[in-house]
Amino acid sequence: MSTLQDKFTTEIAKALQTQLGVKNVNAVPSLKKIVVNMGVKDALADKSNIEKAAVLMGQITGQKAKVMKAKKAISAFKLREGDKVALMVTLRGKRMYDFYDKLVTIVFPRFRDFHGVRKESFDGHGNYTLGFAECTVFPEIDASKVEKIQGLEISIVTTAKDNNQGFELLKALGMPFVK
Hints:
Blueprint: H1 4-20, E1 31-39, H2 48-61, E2 66-69, E3 84-91, H3 93-107, E4 128-132, E5 152-158, H4 163-172
Antiparallel strand pairs: 1-3, 1-5, 2-3, 4-5
């Protein structure tokens, strides 16, 4: 079985080139990186929540998560500048394509009553962001062992110049959009 990355370079890129009317093969939009963010609930109340969430994030992405700190203090949330509050992983290359393939072929079909992702979630530059209320939909996560249900956000960054190119790229890569 060929990987999604191989399939993109051999088949999908050529099809996109003719579909979008791009003359140069290198100008065809492609995936640049996938950024996975997780704001950790109760990170301030219990410091071990960051470590537990980091383990979950590592299982989901196959890569060690970077701990993000608060940029400014917010007294209403009892948040100080420099407090550890979130996790982030940036996927590139083979890991990025493998993660995208897993997202499209395994994770989305596991949702009950899933009719596709919204076309409106593009940012104007061809990048796509989607959020999950819980991370237990990923096959690596054993739901019975998760103490706190964490949500996460996935941003798919592309080299597309506009939303239309980004849409066509993700559709060609198998993203199930709402009809």
